[in-house]
Amino acid sequence: MSERSGKGSWLAAALAATLCLAMPTPTRAADATDFDRAWEQKDRAIVIDAYEYNPIDWRALTSDKRIVGFINKASDGVSPPYACDGTETEQRLCKALWKRHAVARELFHTRRAMAKALGLKWGAYHLGRPGNPIEQANHFIDFAEPEPDDLLAIDIEDNLPDQFMSLADAEEFARHVFRRLGRYPVLYTNGSTAKHIADKRRTYPLLSRLPLWYARYKPQIDMHFPKGNWESYALWQFASRSNCGPRRCPYRVPGAPLDIDVNVAPMTAAALADAWPFASLVPERADVFATDTVPVPAARAAALDGTFSVPFVPLDRPLTPAFLAAMLREAGDRQARATEQPALKTASLRIGPAAVDPGLMRGIGEVAQGLGRGLAGAAGSAGRMLDRFWPKVPDADAADEAPRKEYSQALVGGVPTTP
Q1: Does one domain contain both 252 and 400?
Q2: Is the dihedral of CA 193, 195, 201, 205 positive or negative?
Q3: Distance, CA of 55 to CA of 409 (rounded, Å)
Q4: Which of 196, 234, 243, 283 could form a disulfide with 211 if both were Cys (CB 3.0 to 4.6 A apart)?
Q5: CA 65/CA 45 separation, integer angstroms
Q6: For the chain, how many structural domains are there in total?
Q7: Is 143 in the same domain as 241?
């Protein structure tokens, strides 16, 4: 290669490298899913949430047609006192708190009127604080004055009862909202608190079934679901001031500051409009102690052959705690009835060259009856314990507590059946 041609090749390579640097880096939007950079899917609806110190340019914000909802902070803890007393300093502080409360409430209702006039879905959230959950729920409802199509949410920032509402109190908060309005709020919380609730969903039977507004500022959350009763999320808060800055931000909202919270829904704008305001409980996932099939016993010779394939027979329903409790109670009743049969005959039996003593037979019969009563008691106790530790959700869908008798008898007897 000549010197001239070498220089030409070098220049061509440098020009190509420069062009590559100037070109935008291709995105992986085509690979995005509802659990991996869901906001990069252009058909997924966006929802904004804000508090009173976030300035909003409504005309600019609504220029983004993917934004279909706006959730605003309503109340925080309990209402400040209207009448102030104490020292002069205490009275000034009390009056300042009430003035801030009144201004925040006025701004809230002004924003609601503006958002709805622009065709946005509206929502309100309450920041839960330690204290009386009934009083807080009443304060939230009185502050927000929710209309039937307004989303309601309880904000549990973290599982820190000394700073935020405890999870037990949040259960009562949600229950009281239902008592007053006939519908449930959405639960807003972070990943660790959501996992805690999901892992202890028998402790929090109502909280674990509220629609989940999930706060997680990472691009992937596929490893976090399913989580207890939550197969997915209602909203995923993926951007806030923690991961949005002047140079880099997952999603920039026109007409809003960088610290605005941005959420994505795992659905289109039309589907979100139908699902809003997420006022119902999510379905309860059944605890299953076994699969929906069981193996059929095989002869030893066939199993040792080496070519035997174990057949599986389907069950007509999985072994849930409620079903297992009923099944054990049924087994206990059957065993108790069996021990009430007439005593064994005491006639001498001859087995081989020796005769069996009638007294020995009576002893064996009494031992067998005692074992039977013990099994009946154990089965009944197991059923009662399952009933105790798997409570039902008030006002939720009732589970079938009475399985069909023929199925439970067949299963307890070791012979799975299909009706």
Answers
A1: no
A2: positive
A3: 66
A4: 234
A5: 9
A6: 2
A7: yes
